[in-house]
Amino acid sequence: MSGADTVTDAIVAGSGAGELEDAIRASKRTKRDRNSAFQSPTAEGLCSNCGTELSGPVCHSCGQTADSFHRPVWELLAEIFDGLFGFEGRMWRTIPPLLYRPGHITRQYLSGVRARYVMPFRLYLTASVLFFLVVFGATNIGAPDVPSPEEMAAAQEATAAELENARQQMEANGIDTSELDQALAAAEAGQDALTEVANDPVLQAAREESWKRNAIDGVRVVLVPELYPELVEEFEERSDGRVSDGVIELEEGFSVSLGEDVSDMPLEVRRFLANQAISVINDDGQMMQRELKTWIPRVMFVLVPVYGLLLAFMHFYKRGYFFYDHMVVSLHFHAFLYLFLLVTMVLSAIIGPGWGIVILLVWSNFYLYRIHRRVYDHGRFSSALRVITLNFAYTILLAIGTIVALFLAFLSG
Predict the structure, then answer these.
(1) How many angstroms separate the CA atoms of 166 and 173, rounded?
(2) pTM over 0.70
(3) Final residue before a domain boundary, out of 268, 303, 325
(4) How many domains are contained in the chain?
């Protein structure tokens, strides 16, 4: 560098944040370039984009790589993936220290060491997309945690086995087993009935249809009772008049309460909510599940700058720290969370979910503690106190975000 043109020197130096790798790969492809009908509009040795004379593999004026794209299509596809995810270098220099050296990359990046690492926003997008692809592909969000008839039958079978074992012990000790025999017979009868239900699709369909009908009637009674006076009368008889308080009983032991203020809403709003709820019931929540897959990533994306605002609020008195710095911390921390959650899922499958959760909680909190120590230069006690405060605030934000995502998925569905 001559030092005479600071802007030019900065451009040439800054081109190393990706262009240098492109240029190296371009030089390796020189011998494989194909003859093409589309030739550069400039003479050889001049930049095809701006016409500046080239002094290296990267144009020092516009930053374009002196490369030809006349090569096999799979190489172009590989470059697309590399452009999105940085597979060929920077991603793999970023992920390991991001996971296992808390605050190191953030401190490096904010100090100006950037060319070797993936940009924070791209890193966050890659981690979040990968996480939600795995989670949404491996789980069925929105499915109710209700035991299936097969599970109920298995539980009944286990109960019968326990009763049989107890009967044998009582016989060995000379104790009358007549009452236990009756209980065992009832359990075996129940097992037969449950097995029949589990294997009879007609009975299953009838049971599901009955539950849906009761649920839909209950929604209508609570939200739009003036449109269904006969249903209101029926439910009041069945639930001891509690319909007027916004409480209905769909079936024995299962009630729904929406509060006394439901009737204060405009009829059109209540009608819309009722139609949405009925749609969710009719399709077994499948539409809402699909909408959740859309809204959860969006809500989590909104929480990233909110977390940055929390960090900024906690450090408003420290000079030299800007909102940009807090946003880099937030992006790196959320990218770490997504990637480490994937690691925890693998560990949970190997050592059990309990230990996986313990590892996640311990390492994520220690990670946040080290960020405050390394990036913000806080003391031990101050860092620990800030971790506790951030955990409390972020838990509330996650709860609010979850409710918002569920509500938006409900409205969209």
Answers:
(1) 11
(2) no
(3) 268
(4) 4
